[in-house]
Amino acid sequence: MSVAADTTTRQLLRLGGVTVRFGKPGVRPALDAVDLEVAAQEIVCVLGPSGSGKSTLLRVVAGLQPADEGRVLLEGRDQAGVPTHRRGVGLMFQDHQLFPQRDVAGNVAFGLRMRGASRADQERTVTELLDLVGLPGAQRRAIASLSGGEQQRVALARALAPQPRLLMLDEPLGQLDRGLRERLVAELRRLFRELGTTVLAVTHDQGEAFALADRVVVMQDGRIAQTGTPLEVWQRPATEFVARFLGFDNVVEATVQGDVAVTPWGKVPVPDGTTDGPCRLLVRPAGVRLTSAREGLPCTVAARTFRGTHVALLLQPAAGPQLEAACALQNAPETGEEVGIAFAAQDVVILDATAG
Amino acid sequence: MRLGLMALPLAFFALFFAYPVIAIVGRGLKDGGQWRLGRLGTVLSDPDVLHVLWFTVWQAAASTALTLLIALPGAYVFARFDFPGKQLLRAVVMVPFVLPTVVVGSAFLALVGRGGLLDDLWGMRLDTSVWAILLAHVFFNYAVVVRTVGGLWGQLDPRQEEAARVLGAGRFAAWRRVTLPALGPAVAAAALMVFLFTFTSFGIVQILGGPTFSTLEVEIYRQTADFLDLPTAAVLTLFQFAAVLGLLALHAWTVRRRESTLRLVDASTTARRPRGHGQWALLWGTLAVIAVLLVVPLLVLVERSFAGPDGYGGIFYTTLSSAGSADSTFVVAPLDALWNSLTYGAAATVIALVVGGLAAAALTLSHSGLRPDGQSPRADRLVRGFDALLMLPLGVSAVTVGFGFLITLDAPPLDLRSSWWLVPLAQALVGVPFVVRTMLPVLRAVDGRLREAAAVLGASPWRVWREVDLPMVRRALLIAAGFAFAVSLGEFGATVFIARPDRPTLPVAVARLLGRAGGLNYGQAMALSTILMVVCAGALLALERIRIDQSGEF
Q1: Which residues pair with A324 in a beta bridge?
Q2: Which of A240, B316, B341, B480 might form a disulfide with B505, Cβ 3.0–4.6 angstroms?
């Protein structure tokens, strides 16, 4: 997303050079000069491993964690000195943090009560929201009686009830099992579209991030490593860190010469327009094509893992590091078999050598 | 914010604790405006004083060892076994701890003293030996060990031991390598608490010790009240204070060790019915110990209170309500002491709740600070110091506090000598530590992110407290109130000094009755003790019903 796009859409959240240090000066900050912009009605997902500063980012925006440097602007207004409860943002906590001594309705209506909404308004909103999240009539149920998925829906309804201008989600689906998670991601995306909610979510699960977000921000050690649409990030990881975080491990040292790169695996074709010189190079598993053992680079199949839609192969070439390849189930070779491989240029990515 | 909450407790402690204690110690050590620190040496080399010091330490060590020896198997039984009536028994075990020391003294006097049960049966008397004191201390502190150690023991995940067994450790080796290290800090903390309580023991030794045995606290009382020897009392107070400070520091250290990461589970899931002869024997043995050591003294106390000169009857009770027989020590009817005790106790409870509640809130705030790495080390130390300060009244000689009240709060603008509030103020001092210790674990257990969740939803800090904290601590507040009330009812060391002769509390009245010869006085003392026991036990049983977790320290 370019800077030009921001001038056309209304900018809701802007972080400028936000830095948070937990330890002494000199220790790596939890957030290191982070710049981030979120447009109104945009769904942005911050993706990163644990300890990359994602949750701290949300806490800074919510005002739960003061920033040591930098500014947080909501709708253009600097939030320095504005206490949490006056920021008008919503935050759905990682483990929901529902109030155990209140029932479902008491939880959902909490934010409205704090804003002094009338009892009738509260009841109407609670009913609407519980319908929306698929828990109609659950008003009087106790929190302890809810399943994980139901708690997650109540937490969502509670965060939505006061109509926050920015909704933040911390690992929103982290504790749910896989099937429920996939269903809820789709539901959430539809819901946010309908309501026109601006969302800033953080997660360590790339599947969740790609399914939910308009734009993905990958964080590494308190810094932003890459920003882009899910497709951009998936197809063109910017750095070795991003590539490896997304699960791509076929990364090697390479030197580009014209339309090929010289690597320990031999010559690998590169996309057009690649500049010459040394670099780090990624071949996505889909770009490793199996050929007969006589053609291409000879490899031994070291391991094979069934992945449902395809088979992941771990290959040991005669020279160079091991390679991962993906192939269809029907013609997957057995462990120990000799195969040959070729590389497809569209799945080769030149990584930014400076980071990672 | 935190400083604001701390202000009232700090002011309270400065005015009603530090000021009186410092004043009386100063008066003892000053002569004509000059400090006479040489007195320290003089007093501490006096063979009589040395004897008292030696006895105080010795009996505290012996009481602690004996209590651990008797109560640790009990802790195991309560933690790991499931048996009918366990809840009731848990409450019964707790009764002695909230009983006033004076009642405990009377009960043991009725059991092992002159004309006591053992005397009647076998002509055996222990009130002239140190055993009476030691047994009374075990009686009193059994619950401390069972609660502190058993509470943790029950929450230890048995699968940890099972994991060790699977890895090839024998039954005993698994216990020694896995459970014992986990329990160690709790055992140490319990031992320290028992040592602290017995080191400063007053009422029990006063009643059972006779002229032979005297602890520091009793000696301070004697020097102050009987001989008016303030210098000696001041030196002894300082010495006791230093010793208690050391013990409290140790205790704080073990508590911090205890908070280390243990795998804790719901205690109700770890207990099961005993299996095999060994376990049944252990269960029955524990029940027998509880019956003999904890229940029998209380029953004997009740029995003696009904054993009139002409057979059983309520004579000692009926005479309590009349003021003036010839040898009466009272200008008012002894039964009035009940009313005095209840009203003083209620006022003291309110004071202790306000002061202790604010203090606990201040200590919690610092815990839920915004930075995950905690405050700056200096602020952290300040808070820990505040925490320790709140525990001090448990260890400083109550006699000193009481006498200090008399000599300091006697001049305008704070002339409380004739004020009704003097007694509740002193009693509240002892109640505050209990309130703080009860509230703190609960307040700290409130997940800080719940407060954050409320704040994000638009609740101001005050609303957050009302909406999130208050509903959760309501029960703890009730429990704290109960403890403060029971402790106030039983407070003796300070009250004996400052209660006005025409307004004695129950423990003071009991002690006065016991101090006089004559069967009627003795019987009335037993009757009053029984009443006091019933009130305290009633308060406790009401508490047990609302008690939710066993994680508190008392």
Answers
A1: A314
A2: B341
SS3 sequence of B328-339: CCCCCCCCHHHH
Which of B449, B450, B458 shows the shortest C-beta gap to A114? B458
**What residues of chain A, 313 to 352, have a C-beta less than 8 Å from chain B?**
none
A162 contacts on B by Cβ (under 8 Å): 457-458
Whether A5 shows a pLDDT value over 60: the answer reads: no
Contact in structure between B448 and B505 (CB atoms under 8 Å): no
CB-based contact B534:B423 (threshold 8 Å)? no
Sign of CA dihedral B417, B419, B420, B426: negative
Cross-chain Cβ contact B467/A110 below 8 Å? yes
Q: Is residue B517 scored above 90 in pLDDT?
A: no
What distance in Å separates residue B218's CA from the closest CA in chain A? 49
Q: CA-CA distance, B197 to B191, in Å (whole number)?
A: 10
**From the candidates B376, B457, B464, B473, which should be mutated to test the interface with A, based on the most A CB atoms within 10 A?**
B457
Instruction: Write the DSSP assignment of B78-101 as a string of letters.
Output: HHHB--TTHHHHHHHHHHHHHS-H
Q: What is the pTM of this model?
A: 0.69
Q: What is the pLDDT of residue B161?
A: 74
Cross-chain Cβ contact A110/B457 below 8 Å: yes
Chain A to chain B, count of Cβ pairs less than 8 Å apart?
66
> What is the distance, to the nearest Å, from the Cα of residue B131 to the centroid of all Cα atoms in its chain?
21
Cβ separation B455–A85 shorter than 8 A:
yes
Report how far residue B523's alpha carbon sits from residue B521's, in angstroms, rounded to the nearest whole number.
5
Select the residue of A64, A89, A99 nearest B370 (Cβ to Cβ): A64
B377 backbone dihedrals φ, ψ, rounded to 5°: -55, -30
pLDDT, position A19: 93
A91: chain B residues, CB-CB within 8 Å:
452-453, 456
Handedness of CA A234, A240, A242, A244 (dihedral sign): positive
In this complex, which of B456, B467, B468 lies closest to A62 when CB atoms are compared? B456
SS3 A333: coil
For the stretch B239-253, pLDDT in tens is: 888 888 888 777 777
Among positive and negative, which fits the CA dihedral B189, B192, B193, B194?
A: positive
Answer yes or no: is pLDDT of B160 > 70: yes
Q: What is the ipTM, given to two decimal places?
A: 0.77
- Nearest-CA distance B465 → chain A (Å): 13
Could you tell me where the DSSP H helices lie in A236-330?
240-245
B256 pLDDT band (50/70/90 cuts)? low
CA dihedral B56, B61, B64, B65 (to 10 degrees): -150
Whether A83 has its CB under 8 Å from any CB of chain B: the answer is yes
In the block, tokens 């882009």 appear at: A228
User: Does the pLDDT of residue A13 top 90, yes or no?
Assistant: yes
Structure tokens at A132: 């929306």
Which residue in A has a C-alpha nearest to residue B474's C-alpha?
A: A101
Mean pLDDT throughout B69-79? 88
What is chain A's mean pLDDT, rounded?
87
Could B457 and A23 be called an inter-chain contact, meaning their C-beta atoms sit closer than 8 Å?
no
Tokens of A116: 């002094």
What does DSSP assign to residue A30? S
